[in-house]
Design a protein that fits this description.
Helix content: 10-25%
CATH superfamily of the largest domain: Ribosomal Protein L25, Chain P
Number of domains: 2
CATH architecture of the largest domain: Beta Barrel
Largest sheet: 6 strands, mixed, barrel
Oligomer: single chain
CATH class of the largest domain: Mainly Beta
CATH topology of the largest domain: Ribosomal Protein L25, Chain P
Shape: elongated
Number of helices: 4
Length: 222
């Protein structure tokens, strides 16, 4: 199986100053780590990374990393996925990327989007679909990572739920949550209203507590 190729470069200068200069040059600081690898400081082109993970798996895409100027020939190439990445909240420029080495014969843990299909009987009866998990933590071999996990909610009635144990998973994929965990459910309008009232009451109680504390403070002698 072929994987998208991505050229990265080793960097031996770290810290805020070098990282800032690197970004001014149009590259992003990155780090590569793994169980058998001492972490390596790298730089990557944001545009090239975006292109490499533009497929249906997005950041779960297994990448063929080629590391220029690697200090050791043994780590000049490897398979990896994006484990984490940060963006500037204002400019949305990519600030940093964490890559983790993967071995094709060893399972890894990733988060996979949950997709639901159909319109439930409970919704047609006036209920509301409540999605508890929008992504599911799964474990599988790198080549078995699914694009998404789909659940059909058509049969759900009011106050019914789909649990992890009821989900049909692709071969070799397991969800690392307890089987009885609810991932999608249908709430009745009454249950939703009760939940909102409970939230409002908790907020009011907190407000009363703050007022009492302020009053007590005012009565204390100076």
């Amino acid at each position: 199986m072929e994987f998208p190729q991505l050229q990265v470069s080793f960097r031996n200068r770290t810290g805020k100053g070098p990282a800032r200069r690197l970004r001014q040059q149009g590259r992003t600081p990155a780090i590569l780590y793994g169980s058998k690898l001492k972490s390596l400081s790298l730089s990557v082109s944001p545009a090239e990374l975006s292109k490499a993970i533009s497929g249906p798996l997005h950041t779960n895409t297994v990448l063929d990393l080629s590391i220029a100027d690697a200090p050791d020939e043994a780590v000049s190439a490897c398979k990896a996925i994006v484990r984490d990445h940060q963006f500037d909240p204002v400019t949305r420029h990519l600030l940093h990327v964490d890559f983790v080495v993967v071995e094709l014969d060893k399972k890894i843990s990733v988060s996979v989007p949950l997709r639901w299909t159909g319109r439930s009987a409970g919704e047609q009866a006036g209920g509301k679909l409540a999605v508890v998990y929008r992504t599911l933590p799964v474990e599988c071999l790198p080549e078995q990572i699914p694009e998404a996990i789909e659940v059909d909610v058509t049969h759900l009635q009011l106050n019914e739920a789909i649990t992890v144990g009821e989900v049909t998973l692709p071969e070799g994929v397991s969800v690392t949550l307890p089987a009885q965990t609810s991932i999608v459910l249908i709430q009745s309008a009454r249950a939703e209203e009760a939940a909102e009232e409970e939230t409002d009451e908790e907020g009011a109680a907190e407000g009363e507590g703050e007022e009492t504390a302020e009053s007590t403070t005012e009565k204390q002698p100076s």
